[in-house]
Amino acid sequence: MDIVVMLAKLAEGMAKSVGIFGLTLLFSLPLGLVVTFGRMSKNGVLRNITKFYISVMRGTPLMLQLMVVYFGPFYLFGMKLSTSYRFIAVIIGFALNYAAYFAEIYRSGIESMPTGQYEAARLLGYSRIQCFFVIILPQVIKRILPSVTNEVITLVKDTSLAFAISEMEMFNVAKGLAAASTSMVPLVIAGVFYYIFNFLVAFVMEFIEKKLNYYR
Amino acid sequence: MDIVVMLAKLAEGMAKSVGIFGLTLLFSLPLGLVVTFGRMSKNGVLRNITKFYISVMRGTPLMLQLMVVYFGPFYLFGMKLSTSYRFIAVIIGFALNYAAYFAEIYRSGIESMPTGQYEAARLLGYSRIQCFFVIILPQVIKRILPSVTNEVITLVKDTSLAFAISEMEMFNVAKGLAAASTSMVPLVIAGVFYYIFNFLVAFVMEFIEKKLNYYR
Amino acid sequence: GQDKETEKAGETPAKTEAVTEEAKTEAAETEKKTEAAETEKKTEAAETGEETEAGTEEETKSDKKIADKVIAESETKAETGAKTDFKVDKLTVGFDQDFPPMGFIGDDGEYTGFDLELAAEVADRLGAEVVYQPIAWDMKDAELSSGNIDCIWNGFTMTDREDEYTWSEPYMKNDQVFVVRADSGIASEADLAGKVVDVQTDSSAQRALAGMSKLTESFGSLNPVADYNTAFMELEAGAVDAVAMDSVVANYQIEKRGADFNVLDESIAAEEYAIGFKKGNEELRDAVQEKLDEMAADGTLAEISKKWFGEDMTILGK
Amino acid sequence: MNYLEMKNVKKNFGDLEVIKDISLTVRQGEVVAVIGPSGSGKSTLLRCATLLESMDGGELSYLGEKAVYTDNDGKVTYAGADELRKIRSNFGLVFQNFNLFPHFSVMKNIMDAPVRVQKRNKKEVYEEAKQLLDQMGLSDKENCYPYQLSGGQQQRVSIARALALKPKVLFFDEPTSALDPELTGEILKVIKDLAARHMTMVIVTHEMNFARNVANHVVFMENGVIVEQGEPEVLFNSTNPRMKDFFGKFHEV
Amino acid sequence: MNYLEMKNVKKNFGDLEVIKDISLTVRQGEVVAVIGPSGSGKSTLLRCATLLESMDGGELSYLGEKAVYTDNDGKVTYAGADELRKIRSNFGLVFQNFNLFPHFSVMKNIMDAPVRVQKRNKKEVYEEAKQLLDQMGLSDKENCYPYQLSGGQQQRVSIARALALKPKVLFFDEPTSALDPELTGEILKVIKDLAARHMTMVIVTHEMNFARNVANHVVFMENGVIVEQGEPEVLFNSTNPRMKDFFGKFHEV
Ligand SMILES: Nc1ncnc2c1ncn2[C@@H]1O[C@H](COP(=O)(O)OP(=O)(O)OP(=O)(O)O)[C@@H](O)[C@H]1O
Ligand SMILES: Nc1ncnc2c1ncn2[C@@H]1O[C@H](COP(=O)(O)OP(=O)(O)OP(=O)(O)O)[C@@H](O)[C@H]1O
Ligand SMILES: [Mg+2]
Ligand SMILES: [Mg+2]
């Protein structure tokens, strides 16, 4: 097979992988915050439900979760699926999974905040919501950035799991190409792609970390 | 299909998964230490090679690495593979990958040790090797245990990636059963198995952590 | 042949072994070899716990028969006159476990299926142990050429792939067809315009469709999926409108799932199933082919086919 | 006018009675120093007064408005959320360890609450904040971040932050104990200045000399009760053996 | 006999000359106190003497055996590994922050090196260790872990640990500066005891009174050189203006 064709195909897969990556972050980062609220809620029922949700998401393979998200609506509820649902299922599966991880990171960050910050905000008259979004969250973000970076870099590689439900992301494309050309070249190229992708992500995260270093 | 048969089959897959899990730990934990030595070596060439090795292992999907380990010997060197090589390849792939992660954990632990411990040991006449294994390593182990726990729990789920090279571990068995019984039940049961497995692992790790709490 | 014998004794997982010519002509030698095979069987049986003494005995007998027959044949067949006997210890069959009824996990949890049963019978007659190796379908070439499996025997389409493998004689006819939901209102290929069609990666349906660009361009999209089970689940769930696949498998799935599916009358391609061996591995092919012919002749093939499909769908020797 | 009035205030932590029936009145322009041994409940009293800690009994009011009261059954009732918000704007608190917002510049630390919470005009607040910084001797630090300041400077910013909301009463909980002796002087000078401008203040402190020189009224606490209170000169020359003992220890150090 | 001899020792950190040509002799049974302002190089001198820091020039010998020497070209040569090991067994060092091994019990902290490194009989070492703990007033702590001890107790264990190897010279680098005043007393008493038993010691300290009372010989360092050395009484009454200034500061605190 022509190497150019191969690269073009892989680039297509790469675009899909990047799409999964971007959309997962877009949804899971805020969703994680919501999950954290549940996890730290005063309502015991809500708290235990979120706790269980988090432990399932972190305790079972993402591939399994993807399959359940993809086929679940039909097999469990008899809902008819549409074609476009495959990609949507990938995003839902990833977002739900990563939200659980991000939630735990947020929580550790929030719990590490000194109570003095809350008390100072209360004394100055900030409402609870203002206090959280204006005073606490910006500081939490700085604190948790290294953990978030780790998770984001894991996500780069995890996009390859979308192949479990036959989404044509890079890994799946590379596998197909490897089969068609009976060589390992596509796999190696895919490896290089992932490596570079990771490198770029690490670079961006480092940049953000530096940006946030204006205070300590 | 009979649920008992299904469970028996899944249990077989589970045994394989547990095998992968156990052997991976058995090999990657010491191998990680060797990699750390390379990474922290005074020899610049060795240091950079290990650095690159670690970044590749952490920067590309484990599934890709498994495929390269499995098919590499044939495609790259024309070596004939034997049937038993599949499982060996799984273990090699996992051990190489996890060694890289463990190496970075060890390194962070070793670097976090106060120099005073080294100096005290030197003053008391310990040789470099005695100092490392008698004074430093036991303390490092305690320090890194939470990170190791995280990694070990990730490994539980990662065993499912062995299916990329058709190893009949639990996830693959569950997929096959799902095909044969045309239902999602095997996948859900597999999920429960993973969940329990994880739970047990977390329990054991907590026990070890408590054991090490005899000092601070 | 000295070193060959020691290799066997050393239990190297050798799959195919040519035996020297002198060995074939003398009955005494054959006797010795079957003895060697027997002892080896026993050690293997001890390992796997699967085979009984009786079974081994029977195999020894059939082995003798093989030897006799090979000798007989070597006199008649001119082109294979030079090599007539061939010894197999183990036949590793590569198959896609998500591909009922050809190969899948049976109700008892063991691998079963039409093709696997054939393979077992052939191996039995060869005096070899059969090993079922499930593989990821799109990795079958790598698995075969790297020697992990001896053959691909899994509703494996020969048509259009003639040059890529060393093939057995085709033993079954098959069509590549479209499966649709009964309520979808799709009755012909023309109705597929704008619809979503699943096809397994690296399958013969995919190959066939690749040459039918006019048809595929009319589709809404052509989705490659990793396995047929996923494809069928997607079809059932409504995520796709049609699956291009083997009629043999389609018919079985439709019956098994008890769901309302239709197979379109127009077939994409007519083709034949055969067993694929690594290119150049003619010895094993010949040995397997011979047993298959035997089974066709004594009715075993038809019997197995009836068991799985309710009728004799095989074409070998007809 | 009574700016702050606490009546029969009680506070328990579990079984531990930390504040036992304390009553305290702070009049306009008064500077009250609260002294006493460690663990006597001084901080807890301040935290009750500033609504950071809920009370288990008693009454609390600012400028005659009741924030908390207890009925005859011992049921403690807090004022409604809106009312409490209004009452909160009457006081400010300067923490021992400053609690500045590290991600805000000095100027933003001071301006954010008046602008965001009190919805005051940004420009006007800025002018006032500049003036406050000037008064604190920090005019050149407005764009610094807290981590760039010394402890004494941070504490002065936190005082300015509290003052920017124009509280009627300002509370201090050991405002100098996180500072070394040199920096302590800076802060005490600032508090003295505020006293000179007739700011009403309640100061928990271990600096006996400071309490003596600046306060109009000194409260000596021990084990959750007020042992004695009154004018500094009276108190520091008390014949109460417990207090003599306490002052004696301080003279030693 | 000269237990320790340093001749023209030099040490740089990059461009910074921290030790400039220092010579120092410690005789058997002598207690030497090293004093001087912060950053004068006291710790560095000790670290050179204990081979924790490599020297950039000069000579170092213990009991006449050369550990380090410098030839005429300025090339610094260290003794071979075996010889250094032997020389190292001549001295011990007590760190400012103890550096006990947290995962070893008190007893193991003391016994491990004699048994593992010096390969001495375990039982015999145990007896000696018990005696040492007794001497340090810690006989009931042998099975404790370091985190269960106060700072002063930890420091005493670390002294016992150093003594268990029977060093000829014992170095102390500000052994009390991580301790509060009360605990400081404990340690100084232990060192006084050791002096009474004629242990040869070199002590870097900020406790002027202690240096004055316990040392036979006091060394005053500043900017990497020895400004003056001699008997304590002579030194503490020195007319050197720099030293008078230094002592003056201490009296103030
Ligand atoms: N959140 C709490 N939970 C339980 N007990 C508490 C809590 N806060 C304070 N205490 C206890 O209440 C008592 C009084 O504490 P408080 O901090 O008010 O004393 P203090 O007079 O401010 O002492 P210091 O001079 O040391 O600051 C102490 O015994 C303390 O342990
Ligand atoms: N590892 C090092 N790298 C660079 N400079 C160093 C290093 N160690 C010490 N210094 C510098 O050497 C000088 C002397 O340091 P040293 O610790 O010996 O002083 P000291 O007399 O022990 O002071 P103190 O009484 O504060 O302990 C200081 O200027 C210090 O900054
Ligand atoms: Mg307090
Ligand atoms: Mg020092």
TrEMBL record, chains A, B:
It is found in: Cell membrane. The keyword DNA repair does not apply. It comes from the Bacteria. Residues 14-205 form the ABC transmembrane type-1 domain. The keyword Transmembrane helix applies. The chain crosses the membrane at residues 20-38, 59-78, 84-103, 187-208. Pfam families: BPD_transp_1. GO terms for cellular component: ATP-binding cassette (ABC) transporter complex. GO terms for molecular function: transmembrane transporter activity. It is a multi-pass membrane protein. PROSITE patterns: ABC_TM1. Keywords: Amino-acid transport, Cell membrane, Membrane, Transmembrane, Transmembrane helix, Transport. GO terms for biological process: amino acid transport. Gene3D superfamilies: MetI-like. Belongs to the binding-protein-dependent transport system permease family. This is Amino acid ABC transporter membrane protein (PAAT family). It comes from Murimonas intestini.
From TrEMBL, chains D, E:
InterPro entries: AAA+_ATPase (IPR003593), ABC_ATPase_HisP-typ (IPR030679), ABC_transporter-like_ATP-bd (IPR003439), ABC_transporter-like_CS (IPR017871), MetN_ABC_transporter-like (IPR050086), P-loop_NTPase (IPR027417). Pfam families: ABC_tran (PF00005). One of its GO terms (molecular function) is ATP hydrolysis activity. It is a peripheral membrane protein. Residues 4-248 form the ABC transporter domain. Its main location: membrane. The keyword Amino-acid biosynthesis does not apply. GO terms for cellular component: plasma membrane. Keywords: Amino-acid transport, ATP-binding, Cell membrane, Membrane, Nucleotide-binding, Transport. It is found in: Cell membrane. Belongs to the ABC transporter superfamily. This is Amino acid ABC transporter ATP-binding protein (PAAT family). It comes from Murimonas intestini.
